[in-house]
Specification:
Layout (H helix, E strand, L loop, with lengths): L2 E3 L7 H4 L8 E6 L6 H10 L8 E3 L4 E3 L17 H5 E6 L7 H21 L6 E3 H5 L5 H7 L1 H11 L21 H12 L12 H13 L10 H9 L11 E5 L3 E5 L8 E6 L3 E8 L2 E4 L5 E3 L3 E3 L1
Parallel strand pairs: 1-4, 2-5, 2-6, 3-5
Antiparallel strand pairs: 3-4, 7-10, 7-13, 8-9, 10-11, 11-12
Helix pairs in contact: 4-7
The structure holds zinc ion.
Length: 305
């Protein structure tokens, strides 16, 4: 991730960042808008309002607008407020609509937050939200759809720290995590045709299953179990031996082998092509059985319809 500089001109310091600052932490915001980081910053620097912030982050880039050693007007706690005078502010874009691009922007903001923590020798306790300073319900999208702990756990992950346990039954789960929530994840994945050991350890097999599940469900196959993936998992129809809920898939690979059994160890019976749609009537270990009886296909190379 790179940081692009579009810094406030000196002529605007009087309005946007009048005081020098020795920062003591990072303050997180949501824009409540659907503009890119580039556009947020050009709007902010171009207008004559006092409102300002240090960084805007979207799904593609980070734009730096106010130098970190000057104050910005973001926290709503007044001219002498700790938020306004002591904190480096980050605006996360696309919070109005939320969804996948907001989630990516949030990941990028977690990366930036972790970088600032490392650069200044700070810890997770130095990360605050706008709400902490003025009571404003900001960062609204994080609070509504993810929970503040979720964001802090993203930052901890960037720092290589273990997540803090929360009461949340669907917390952020990443490769390497362990615990009850991972067991729950593995149990649900097994209802979807995977064959994982329910050991509560997010290892390579679980990671591969998560990626295949994400790919099959039209999600970014990043192996990270966040709210979008949990949502699909919890809504997925249970696939039991007695009553498998058949569903349609579209082939996403150019050519896909149909095998006589659920695995690459079985012989190839035929091939199918990209864009073709098939009904899956059973699943096992990430492989799906075709209704036609022709055999089994690797579901990682299909998208669920
Ligand atoms: Zn805010």
């Amino acid at each position: 991730m790179t940081i692009r500089e579009n810094l406030c001109p000196d002529s605007k310091y009087k309005t946007k960042c009048p005081y020098t600052m020795a920062p003591i932490g990072v303050c997180i915001h949501n824009t409540a808008n659907d503009a890119t980081a580039k556009n947020e910053v050009s709007y902010m620097l171009g207008n004559g309002n006092k409102v300002s912030y240090h960084y805007a982050v979207d799904d593609k880039e980070i734009v730096h607008a106010i130098p970190d050693n000057r104050n910005a007007w973001h926290a709503g706690d007044g001219g002498k407020g700790t938020g306004n005078r002591k904190y480096i502010s980050i605006e996360i874009c696309y919070s109005k609509s939320g969804g996948a691009r907001f989630e990516k922007a949030m990941d990028n903001a977690a990366w930036l937050t972790a970088k600032l923590l490392r650069d200044h020798g700070w810890g997770i306790a130095n990360v605050k939200k706008h709400q902490d300073f003025s009571g404003k319900y900001c960062p609204h999208r994080i609070l509504d759809d993810y929970g503040w702990d979720y964001f802090l756990n993203l930052v901890r992950a960037e720092l290589g720290q273990a997540p803090e346990s929360t009461e949340d039954t669907t917390p952020l789960l990443l490769y390497g995590y362990t615990g009850e929530a991972v067991k729950r994840l593995q149990t649900i994945l097994n209802t979807q045709g995977f064959d994982l050991e329910v050991d509560g350890s997010f290892g390579p097999a679980t990671l591969a299953a998560v990626k295949a599940f994400q790919e099959n469900n039209g999600l970014d196959p990043d192996g990270k179990v966040g709210p979008l993936t949990w949502g699909k998992l919890l809504n997925a129809a249970p696939a039991t031996a007695s009553g498998f809920a058949s569903y349609l898939v579209r082939v996403t690979a150019a050519v896909l082998n149909v095998r006589k059994g659920p695995g690459t160890g079985y012989g190839i019976s035929t091939t199918i092509r990209k864009g073709e749609v098939y009904t899956i009537v059973d699943a096992q270990g990430g492989w799906g059985k075709l209704k036609s009886g022709a055999g089994w296909i690797n579901l990682a190379y299909t998208a669920r319809k």
